[in-house]
Amino acid sequence: MRALGLDLGTKRIGLATSDISGLIATPHSTLNRSSSVRRDHESIARIVESEEVEIVVVGLPIRMNGELGPAAEAANREAAKLGTVLRVPVIMFDERMTTVAADRALKEANISASRRREFVDRVAAAVMLQTWLDRGCPR
To answer: Using CA atoms, how far apart are residues 53 and 3, in angstroms rounded to an integer?
Structure first.
C-alpha cells in the first residue's frame, strides 16, 4: 500500500511517501503554503494522483502530556477538509517529536542550518510516516 505522510505547518507542509510495499518512508517534497488552503489541498491531491497514493497519514501534533492543544485541533480540522478533496482515506497519526528527530538527523548529516530549514518538514513527515508503517499501519 502506497501512503503519503503530511507534516502540516502554518508556512509549509512536509510530504513523504512510502514505497509500494508500504515498508519504507522517504521524504518527498515541501509545499510552501499559499494564501488558499483549498489551493494547497489541490496541490496535495495532484501528488496523491501522480504517486498513486492509497492513504494519506496526517501528523497529529499531540502535546507531550497527551492532550490535544490548538495545533492538534487545527490539524484535525484541516485533515477533515482535505478528506473532502481527496479520493483516498485521510487518517491522523501522532507526530510527537518528529521535527526534533528530523532536525537531529539533519544535524548529524552535517547539513547547515539554512539547508535544514529547507528539508526538516519533509524529513519530519518521513519520520512520522515510517513510525506509522512500523506500527502496522493502524487506522
So the answer is: 5
Sites in the chain below the pLDDT cut of 70:
97-103, 106
How far apart, in whole angstroms, are the C-alpha atoms of residue 41 and residue 39? 5
Contact 5, 15 (CB under 8 A): yes
User: Pairing relation of β-strands 25-32 and 12-18?
Assistant: antiparallel
Q: Domains in the chain and their CATH numbers?
A: 3-134 (3.30.420.140)
Output the pTM of the full model. Answer: 0.90
Q: For the residues of 61-128, what is the DSSP string, one character each? A: ---TTS---HHHHHHHHHHHHHHTT-SS-EEEEE-TTHHHHHHHHHHHTT--HHHHHHHHHHHHHHHH
DSSP symbol at 39: H
